[in-house]
Design goal:
The chain is mainly alpha-helical. 83% of the residues lie in helices and 0% in strands. It contains 19 helices and no strands. The radius of gyration is 20 Å and the shape is globular. The two termini are 35 Å apart.
Length: 416
């Protein structure tokens, strides 16, 4: 029990500083591209597309390796090491390359950001979720600290950006040093049985997933619902800052709002496991989808900073329910030995595929039709796919009341 608490706090601290590092360097990414690098909406859409392509190339690899090595922390070591250079990379490599040639900068930046953050987060989340099952604590309560880390960095990001964007990048590197020290202190014990289960994973078992119609129905949900929220968020800071008398004021207020939203998100991340355990993983996914469609459509209908801010805050309810529901849905309906592959391919990889398709389309629509009209189109799209998923997602299996939802399917859902 004592070791379980120690593991919970170490992984929670790791989450906090990973998200702090990510937020400090990335929360105002689209504003940095537009105001500092002077890219237009289409060029910004291209940057996000390239980032998504590199991330999706890494996610299946991360997933297979993660399941194959079990609870060993090799991937955490790689990601933590890459984060140490985040500040110098943005300042001395990424920014100058984008000014020199957008496509060259996009490729170099996409490689780094894809491996370290965009695919790295999925590998970290799936790793912590595995450890949470082993040491008997709720994943959502640990992931909550990641939201707090993002909020803590975002709270000052807008102010620092107005002074000098490079301040945020240097803060990110300092945070990464702390992250690396925490990572080195984490020691997860693996039993002989756990090592044998991990080593038993092979490509035949992975291929079997793609013959399962329920896996494909889940992928359809991700393509039609969850990836749209990523596309929506990409250039939202630009839309938000345009509602203010000056862009500088908009940047500053966005930093405060985003920080407040993520603090709410952290609180909801603590409560989300209780909510999802009550209503079930499938209903949790459906609820998150309808909340998302309401938020996106509302962003296109409301007028002024107060209305836009209200729509932004719905994210604090939607994301925790979706993330916890995804893990519990996958654990309830598929082989838990493949948990990293299921999450990184079925959820993260599919989201990035969708983002690589929809990001340039959304970027062009922003330039042609404006943000409000584009949000209406996106919101209706999400609503339609959420409705379809009511009939296609698998019903939650009935489980004995005394068992935890996230720990019960490995024995009876093994692949042939």
């Amino acid at each position: 029990m004592r070791h379980s608490k120690s593991m919970y706090w170490k992984l929670s601290a790791y989450f906090f500083f990973f998200f702090f590092t990510w937020s400090a360097s990335y929360s105002l990414f689209s504003i940095w591209l537009g105001q500092e690098i002077n890219l237009n909406g289409t060029e910004t859409g291209i940057i996000f597309t390239v980032n998504a392509i590199f991330a999706l190339c890494m996610q299946p690899l991360y997933g297979f390796i993660s399941d194959k090595i079990g609870l060993k922390k090799h991937i955490l070591f790689l990601i933590s090491g890459l984060l140490l250079i985040v500040g110098p990379f943005y300042i001395f490599v990424y920014g100058p390359l984008l000014r020199y040639n957008v496509f060259l900068g996009a490729i170099v930046g996409g490689l780094y950001l894809g491996v370290a953050f965009l695919a790295g987060i999925g590998a970290i989340e799936s790793y912590v979720e595995k450890v949470s099952r082993k040491y008997d604590f709720e994943y959502g309560k640990s992931r909550m600290w990641g939201s707090l880390g993002w909020a803590a960095a975002t709270f000052f990001a807008g102010q620092f950006f107005n002074i000098n964007p490079n301040i945020n990048f240097w803060i990110a590197s300092v945070s990464a040093v702390i992250l690396f020290i925490i990572m080195m202190s984490i020691k997860v014990e693996m039993t002989e049985s756990e090592m044998e289960q991990a080593e038993s994973i092979n490509f035949r078992q992975v291929g079997h997933l793609f013959t399962d119609k329920h896996f494909w129905f889940f992928i359809v949900y991700v393509l039609g619902v969850t990836c749209i929220y990523n596309v929506y968020d990409q250039q939202f800071p630009i839309f938000f800052s345009s509602a203010f008398a000056s862009i500088a004021l908009g940047n500053q207020v966005y930093g405060y709002l985003n920080s407040f939203q993520v603090f709410l998100e952290a609180g909801m991340m603590f409560l989300a496991p209780f909510v999802v355990n009550k209503i079930g993983a499938k209903r949790g996914l459906i609820l998150a989808g309808f909340l998302m469609s309401f938020r996106i459509v509302g962003s296109g209908l409301v007028i002024g900073p107060y209305g836009i801010s209200a729509m932004k805050l719905i994210h604090a309810l939607e994301l925790p329910i979706m993330l916890i529901s995804v893990f519990k849905y996958l654990a309830a309906n598929f082989d838990t030995r493949l948990s990293s592959i299921l999450y990184l391919v079925g959820y993260q990889f599919t989201s990035q595929v969708g983002a690589s398709i929809f990001s340039p389309i959304a970027g062009a629509l922003y330039d042609i039709r404006g943000f409000a009209n584009t949000y209406l189109i996106m919101g209706i799209f999400v609503f339609a796919f959420t409705t379809i998923s009511i009939f296609t997602l698998k019903k939650d299996p009935k489980k004995p009341n005394h068992l935890e939802p996230q720990t019960q399917t490995s024995s009876n859902m093994e692949l042939a």
